[in-house]
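Hey, does this match?
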Amino acid sequence: MTYPTPSDVTHAQVAAAPQASLSLPSSEIGGLLPSGRSDRDEALRQNPSTPRPWAHSLAGGVGGMTSATLTSPLDVLKTRLQSDFYQRQIAASRKSRGIPPPAQLGYLKSGRLHFTETFQILFSIHKLEGWRALFKGLGPNLTGVVPARAINFYTYGNGKRIISERFNNGHEAAWVHICAAVNAGIVTGTATNPIWLIKTRLQLDKSRAEKAGTASARRYKNSLDCLRQTIQTEGFRGLYRGLTASYLGVTESTLQWFLYEQGKLYLRRREDQLIESGRHPTIWDQTVGWGGKMGAAGAAKSFAAIITYPHEVIRTRMRQAPLHDGRLKYTGLVQCFSTIWKEEGMAALYGGLTPHMLRVVPSAAIMFGMYEFVLKLCGTNS
């Protein structure tokens, strides 16, 4: 059974409940609560929220759509920086200006160079291709984001409830969060890999800026044409290229969910202490209560993304279209990793990290904030 968040219990309800001296288990945090919390537990049980499994899907889809639209320009930039085509262009530009490779520079100079080149590419997209190019691939991106987030949040939210009820006596715990997150990541990655493959290939397709240099036509007209050509040249298995790298990405989503849950646990404990103290909430308390979950989501995503970022580059490379002679440059996970390492060095595994972090951190905050907000509108909670 799902219980309301601490904010749903008023100070009057807690104050009216008799003080008890025994500790009671809580399905909210999966542990024993101090004696001062037993009265509050009784108030929670008297005001339960109705479990609504479908609400997680709706809330996740709305959150994903909102965040994807607002951060689309940075997603286009990240995908270009991850591709070997743009990496070759960047290398040629450095050579023409007499700039040595990043491997020969210090960490500070290399980082500053990467940061500068990132924003130069971002501004050049707008100047050379128009503002619409900043939203190239948004259609298939939304087609992937909405079902992907709906599936992920639905699977995680309901999986967490089912696992805790059947295997942990209704208590939440860290291992419950981890199991639910792994399951959600695998299901989501398998279901939506074809959509992400098409989105990646469209973003890497030759644009008008590339035509000026190569005078070659674009390979794909639209999403359906990309789908048709992929099936004709690579078969249906081609739609699942990069799936193994997507499964590596489960580690990122699992770590993110785990850290997010720990952040929410801290916020719950903080609110409990405020209620028990009887102190009137200050402006800072209200700010933490309103934006704390969004901050926890952004911080969790930031930490998880930095640790697991190389799988993003490998996944993008494996989803690239075949070469003009029909050969596949990257044929497998290990082969892709070793090829990038030999040809471009370790730094290439972090290509596009700056725009990636600029995108995913606010995106996670927006998405999880909308998720919690829509759940509240639906009369339930996470």
